[in-house]
Amino acid sequence: MENNSNSIQRKIIHIDMDAFYASVEQRDNPLYRGKAIAVGGSPEGRGGVVATASYEARKFGVRSAMPSKRAQQLCPELIFVRPRFDAYKEVSRRIREIFSRHTDLIEPLSLDEAYLDVTTDKQHIGSAIEIAKLIKQAIRDELQLTASAGVSINKFVAKIASDLNKPDGLTFIGPSSIESFMEQLPVEKFHGVGKVTADKMKRMGLFTGADLKKLSEQDLKTHFGKVGSFYYRIVRGQDEREVQPHRETKSLGAEDTFPYDLTTVADMEAELIKIGKTVYDRLERYQLKGRTITLKIKYADFKQITRNQSFPFPVGDFETIIETAKQLLAATSPEDKPIRLLGITLSNFNEAPASEGKTGPSPQLSLFNFEE
């Protein structure tokens, strides 16, 4: 594997809580333990989408972002549970406290996952694997929850590793095995490769990292645009991105490109609920509220538009985000054109009207795609 000889080899941990919302509900309510539950949606499949499914429900094929009706069909015994975001936020705060015992270089991605750089750790343990074990044990002992951890020398590989042995897994991918591991990885397992891109790759005969590796950087850019350069590096295990505990950007959001074009308002609104949940999670993590909500739409013909709504006061609650996004969507006559991408962004964080003055910048996240 190619390395930058001028850079220090980092020790990166990616922690991802297991079925976070559902696990909190099962922990707090004995009646839910060992049962197939779905957080979000509604009983008897009357509407909405699943936010998180317990592992008992996942055995039936129930998954995040699935319409409630479909989830109920797959698992007739499914119990729908109303989300308690305040509870999840408090648990997330305590998880962050556990992380901070070992490092201040913590980059949260949402309420239930984060990157940690433990190259230099506070307790002088020295081993990222041992630190990951301690974190997992503390989460189990203090919060009665489980987390999965991935350990490697960069963010990309650590994130993939954390997903390999869920739930309650710990996977280490060392420097000498990264490139061979990437060559064997199916293209759909590469974070950043969504369903649409994976399907395109497979139509081109690209099924694994080894297949991607046969293409030059220019070939990848020709077929996939600027992101082709990213694919070229990651398939070789190269990721120089630092863990960033504070990001000063001007917006926070999430978006998703769909495996098929959306043609009904009901499907569009269901996707907005899923995306809005991700945005809400990130707002809660950073204790942010914004004055402007923006809806991004990309149509099947690749034409892209944005619509926004500004408020005289900061907003950040889940209901306002979703209802505003739905209203912005309705104003575009959504039934007229198939949609391939939707996104929701909040901006103008902690900014007072001009007459009141403005506060200083706050740490914010850049835009991430949400794909399970």
UniProtKB/TrEMBL annotation:
Q: Which Gene3D superfamilies match?
A: 3.30.70.270, 3.40.1170.60, 5' to 3' exonuclease, C-terminal subdomain, DNA polymerase, Y-family, little finger domain
Q: Where does Mg(2+) bind?
A: 16, 112
Report if keyword Nucleotide-binding is assigned: no
- Tell me the InterPro entries matching this sequence: DNA/RNA_pol_sf (IPR043502), DNA_pol_Y-fam_lit_finger_sf (IPR036775), DNA_pol_Y-fam_little_finger (IPR017961), DNA_polymerase-Y (IPR050116), DNApol_IV (IPR022880), IMS_HHH_1 (IPR053848), Rev_trsase/Diguanyl_cyclase (IPR043128), UmuC (IPR001126)
Q: Which GO terms describe its molecular function?
A: DNA-directed DNA polymerase activity
Q: What is its EC number?
A: 2.7.7.7
Task: Note whether Nucleotidyltransferase occurs among the keywords.
Answer: yes
Which top-level group of life is the source organism from?
A: Bacteria
Entries under SUPFAM superfamilies matching the protein: DNA/RNA polymerases (SSF56672), Lesion bypass DNA polymerase (Y-family), little finger domain (SSF100879)
Spans annotated as Disordered:
352-372
Q: UmuC domain: which residues?
A: 12-194
Q: Where is the composition biased (Polar residues)?
A: 361-372
- Catalytic activity annotation: DNA(n) + a 2'-deoxyribonucleoside 5'-triphosphate = DNA(n+1) + diphosphate
Catalytic residues as annotated in Swiss-Prot or TrEMBL: 113
Query: How many cofactor units bind, and how?
Result: Binds 2 magnesium ions per subunit.
- Quaternary state and partners of this protein? Monomer.
**UniProt-recorded name of the protein:** DNA polymerase IV
Q: What is the species listed in this Swiss-Prot or TrEMBL entry?
A: Chitinophaga hostae
